[in-house]
Write a structure and sequence with these properties.
By secondary structure, the protein is an alpha+beta fold. Helix content is about 15%, strand content about 25%.
């Protein structure tokens, strides 16, 4: 029998540098699902593990869940011979073939995570540790960005709370949050934050260290490769979550020393109290003029950072688009059907929605055809330092 290395190389050559990927779902026990991930109703509830509320796309890390399997969320290749192998192991075996020789000199993996999530209620007010604190528990920081797809039910609470009211930082009143963490019995901590609408077709860019409580709109998120977080909101709906979630991303030493006050030490207070928070974090599609064609067009939808980037590609019915990029990426087919360099893709078929485009294929012209009667919409997810021409948000200052 051929070894894994040879099977992977042969598959890569056969498909001109493209791998099919399997879908991967993640269950959470702290919040119910919104049931908008394409599964049957009875497939969402997994008993003690909770509800399937997330689908991870091309992930090379696993979800930090209490009761799930060790590989929960990790991506597996969809190979014709049935070989079970994760995308992470694939990259470990043939790194230069996937990442490109030059990129591999400075980057040992894809180093990004894309996901889709759908919750019944707003996600609890939480933050992701900055690099200095994440390192203390053996994790990466988690900078992230959101895109809210069009033509999808927004759910009952399509607004996200971000940061704190500016006066809390200006007047150094951060202690105002501590009683809610000590009592751990309500959602009233949200009184001290501000909410912004989740607008279909738009999104937000959120560095680590910023408090946020995402709303119920289906969200396609791109982020650093991490699942670290700490929750500050005890109650959602009628449910009180375990207080352990407050210390989820905290070392035992810091938990014992600071207790609830560890939160005050880990937050980026200047960013949380920014009076121009919306203006400095809102993302909206920016057309990429240099790739615009008769058959379709691309837009930047994830930008303002060198840690990841992403594009939305739209191809018109019956048309084609020549796709050329700067490096390795994975795709998710949001709507429509067609072919990607001859490989059949189709929204709604879990096993035809995801591909990995290896470096040598990505930098050459690939033909994307729309064979359906509606727009073919594809999202491209890139890791750090690949798209150095991605735009930046114009910064507003007080």
């Amino acid at each position: 029998m051929k070894d894994k290395h040879n099977i992977l190389i042969e598959t890569q050559e056969k498909n001109n540098g493209i791998f099919r990927l399997k879908p991967a779902f993640v269950a959470r026990d702290f919040l119910e699902t919104g049931k908008r991930l394409g599964l049957k109703d009875e497939e969402y509830f997994l008993g003690e593990r909770g509800w399937i509320a997330e689908r991870w796309l091309g992930a090379t890390n696993s979800a930090k869940t209490r009761l799930g399997p060790k590989d929960e969320g990790m991506c597996y290749l969809n190979l014709e011979n049935g070989l079970e192998i994760t995308l992470k192991e694939t990259i470990d075996l043939i790194p230069e073939s996937i990442l490109g020789r030059e990129y591999f000199k400075t980057h040992k993996g894809l180093s990004r995570l894309a996901k889709i999530y759908s919750f019944k209620d707003r996600i609890q007010y939480h933050y992701h540790q900055m690099e200095k604190d994440a390192r203390l528990v053996g994790s990466n920081s988690k900078e992230e960005a959101y895109y809210f797809p069009e033509d999808v039910d927004l759910g009952p609470h399509p607004e996200t709370f971000f940061g704190v009211h500016p006066y809390i930082v200006e007047e150094k009143k951060q202690d105002i949050l501590i009683p809610y963490l000590e009592d751990w019995n309500s959602d009233l901590i949200l009184k001290h934050s501000r909410a912004y609408l989740q607008v279909p077709g738009e999104g937000f860019h959120i560095p680590s260290g910023i408090l946020h409580a995402p709303g119920t709109a289906v969200t396609i998120e791109l982020q650093e490769e991490s699942d670290i977080f700490s929750m500050l909101q005890a109650k959602t709906g009628e449910n009180i979550i375990p207080k352990e979630y407050l210390y989820n991303g905290v070392s035992d030493k810091d938990r014992e020393k600071y207790k609830e006050r560890i939160v005050l030490k880990q937050l980026d207070w200047e960013a949380n109290g920014d009076p121009y928070f919306y203006e400095n974090h809102r993302l909206f599609p920016q057309i990429i003029e240099k790739t615009k064609q008769d058959g379709g067009e691309e837009y930047w939808i994830y930008y303002n950072t060198n840690k990841f980037s992403g594009k939305k590609l739209t191809v018109k019915p019956g048309k084609s688009f020549k796709s050329v990029d700067a490096g390795v990426y994975n795709i998710f087919v949001m709507s429509g059907k067609g072919t990607f360099d001859g490989i059949e893709i189709e929204s709604g078929d879990f096993y035809k929605e995801e591909l990995l485009i290896c470096h040598d294929a990505a930098v050459k012209p690939l033909t994307v055809k729309n064979t359906g009667n509606r727009d073919l919409k594809i999202i491209k997810f890139f890791g750090p330092d690949i798209n150095k021409d991605a735009p930046l948000i114009k910064k507003y200052k007080s």
